[in-house]
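Let us begin with a simple case.
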Amino acid sequence: MSNERIGMVTFKGNPLTLTGSVVNVGDLAPDFTVVSNSLAPVKLSDFAGKVVILSVAPSLDTAVCDLQAKRFNKMVSEVSEEVVILNISLDLPFALARWCGATGSDQVQTLSDYQEREFGNKYGVLIKELKLLARSVWLISKDGKVVYNEIVPETVTEPNYDALLNEVKKIA
């Protein structure tokens, strides 16, 4: 079911509209296809049987998104090898590859939803006004269920990393 939710997130205090389906804790995580830095298709189902963290950001070319992606790149060493961390944005794959090279980030997988916006629509985090993804984090268990999510209310703030890590420790 597609819908619009106004004011669930803001940008510098201004309400924005999220579009797409609503995915809640306890739901089976919808499969989606995004694109790797090499333009290869990547599906959530490619990581079946793993714990998956989805770190979603508007654009790695902004300060807060840069900090978030770097934090998740570091987090790879803090979690079990059973955990895969995917950073999803609408940045072009070429920009993602450039960011990885410039920051030395080689642990988190940067992925782009630019082609079909399938992830943004299936997870209800496509911002109508900005045509970007809302900052959010999602934790998906080995059996494919959403066990934690945070759609960050103010787009220019970081997610609650500690809350997410506490949930990761419970399942991985």
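The second case is a distinct protein. As before, the sequence precedes its structure tokens.
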Amino acid sequence: MSKEQGMPNLLRPAHVLMVCTLGAALLIACEQGPSEAELAAKAENAQLLADLAGRDSLISDMTRSFDEIETNIKMMDDREQILESASEGELGKSKKDKIVRDLQLMNGLMKESRERIKELTARLDKSKVDTKGLRAKLKSLDLQLAQRDSMITNMKDGLLASDFRIEEINSNLDSIELVVAKREAVIDQQTTELNKAYYVMGTKKELEESGVLTLEGGFIGIGKRASLNSDATSSTFTVADVRELHRIPVQHKKAVLVTEHPASSYAMVEENDMIAYLEIKNPEAFWKLSKYAVVEVR
């Protein structure tokens, strides 16, 4: 037996050379790193992830900004209703100061909202996101702001005729003042909602046809009584502030309250042989059981 045949587990020189060659090739490949194709694919994936993150961030920011602008618009609408009510009757100093403050708030809300739309439009112009839906929403908000701007202008024209100064009603609040005014407006609106009351007057037939009253109780159609319909819509009623409503005009021969209110909290006041108005003597007690008052006249 030859020497080579007697050593079957030892590497032959040719095998050693092959192993060394493969090892050298692997070492060179490791030292050279990823290929150009691998690097390009990696860069493409990174860019795709960055684009997706940028898109999600943009959409999130846009959605939040849309909500803020819509909140500003709602606040302007609330201020408009309050200003319309405040502008009626005699305008004392405190009332005029409140009107000026509310208008300055509306100016600030308008300015803030339009600047936000301008900023969002610029971001969309630079982005690679499909912005058709986002641009349509911005256009809708801009149109709503234009409508409010026209409303504010008309309101200011009316106030100028009542000796308001143009520099006061046209001034803007700075950023800090606007934040404070917004907070005050939210509290004011919440207080107004808590003090809202609703009243309506009409004959029994009118109240039933409008859905205000419904018949309940009784037996086989006998002895039924009219009561406030729980499905009645607020649009049927006149909205009032319980802090300011002291009289409900009646001007009929007979009148009765259908809704429940303590008898001591009100009085039917007669003038010229008819009931002229319902006087609310104790507002807190009168509206305690219900914020709705239904007066049936005959």
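Confidence is low (pLDDT under 50) at residues 217-224. The helical segments are 13-32, 36-86, 93-126, 132-160, 166-169, 175-194, 204-209, 283-286.
Keep these points in mind for the review questions at the end of the chapter.
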